[in-house]
Amino acid sequence: MISSEYRSSNLWKFLLFGCLILGFTACENSPPRPNVSDEIISYDTIKAWDITTYAAYAEPKPQFYDSSGKSIDLLSFAKSMGVNTLRFRVLTGKPVFPHATISQLLVLAKKAYANKLAIWIDFHYSDVWADPGNQAVPKQWEGLSLAVLSDSVKAYSQQVIQQFVAQGTPPAVVQIGNEISPGMLWPVGKFTSSPSEAANVALLFQSGANGVKAASPKTKIMLHLAGNSTTLWWLGNQYLTAGMQFDLWGFSYYGNWHGCDATVFMQTCQNLGMRNSKPFIIAETAHPFTLGWQDQTGNVFGNTNQLCPTFTATPSNQKTWLEYAWRSGKIHSQFRGMGYWEPAWVTETSWSGLQGSPWENMSLFDFNHKALPGAYFTWR
């Protein structure tokens, strides 16, 4: 019979040998491997393109070219130009072009992660565009009370983000609503001026944020507003007083609507950031490279009176506008980045009429889909 002393000695040797083979860490009481949601791709300074419409294009998607005419992969090119984040807008219901479906966005999210590009989700909480002039509640949520609507927003937000997490592409940032200066999910969440209205918006906002955090705890939550400097300062303080909690301020900045003096605008953003010790991002900006057109769809920016002084609609001034906005923001301690809205919403030469692009002259690619100087803007 083998003695217990011999058995103990050899067992110890066996375990030691196993540790040497497998590595000492396997035998230590080390923490488990992080979940996918803990391996999130994110960046301290966001340099973003919103390319939702690119995701919505049917296959084969439009072909893009660099400035020399060489065919490029859009995401690889964006990465090489210093872009580190892609922004996707998400509509409820059954989105149709130029809006992408969740399935289309999930496909593009995988390609983004393959290119080391972070993801930024922009929830509209509407079946149609949501902006300061429209925050229509989705058809499926019409007539719900504030309490039930809040629960629905939380469940929906969690369910969507879980799909990104499940495939290994958790978003770095999620907006709870798009340009919600007048509130969200009208009429229940409409905000005009009263504290009680602001409280309703705050409740809906936090419900969405809680749903996102339940699915992806490390994802940062953004409050996205639009307005001129005076409006933003008032709105921001109203929402903070109502109890909104978030990680990032997001502001739209188009000179035509929000003021041509970026110095004044960015100072307001900085002041709001200091107000609650949160950084700010210019969530959207853009500038036309021409006032001409390729299709018969009316362009959003098509008149000289929509331009800021000295910033005419030329390829070089498109780039100059980006440099101006970036430099004006970067001097502030709370500034954490900027995004260009729909740089790849081009018109296909076979399209016309209602199938055209109202943003064709704001793209960072010309009417032949060749990269413009603005696409080569350096994020520094």
* Strands, total number: 10
Task: List low-pLDDT spans.
Answer: 1-34
Instruction: Assign the CATH architecture of the largest domain.
Output: Alpha-Beta Barrel
* CA-based gyration radius: 24 Å
What is the rounded distance between the termini?
76 Å
SSE order, one letter for each helix or strand: HHEHEEHEHEHEHEHEHHEHE
Which range does the strand content fall in? 5-15%
Describe this structure in words.
There is one protein chain. With 380 residues, this protein is an alpha/beta fold. The protein folds into two domains: 30 residues, no CATH class; 341 residues, TIM Barrel, CATH 3.20.20.80. It has eleven helices and ten strands. The protein has an eight-stranded parallel barrel with strand order 1-4-5-6-7-8-9-10, surrounded by five helices. Strands 2-3 form a two-stranded antiparallel ribbon. The longest helix is centred in the middle third of the chain and has 21 residues.
Give the SSE map.
Blueprint: H1 4-22, H2 24-27, E1 46-50, H3 52-56, E2 64-65, E3 71-72, H4 74-80, E4 85-90, H5 102-114, E5 118-123, H6 146-166, E6 173-176, H7 195-215, E7 220-225, H8 229-241, E8 248-252, H9 255-258, H10 262-276, E9 280-285, H11 315-330, E10 335-341
Parallel strand pairs: 1-4, 1-10, 4-5, 5-6, 6-7, 7-8, 8-9, 9-10
Antiparallel strand pairs: 2-3
Helix pairs in contact: 6-7, 8-10, 10-11
Entry summary:
The protein has 380 residues and is of the alpha/beta class.
Structural key phrases:
380 residues; alpha/beta; TIM Barrel; 2 domains; 8-stranded parallel barrel; two-stranded antiparallel ribbon
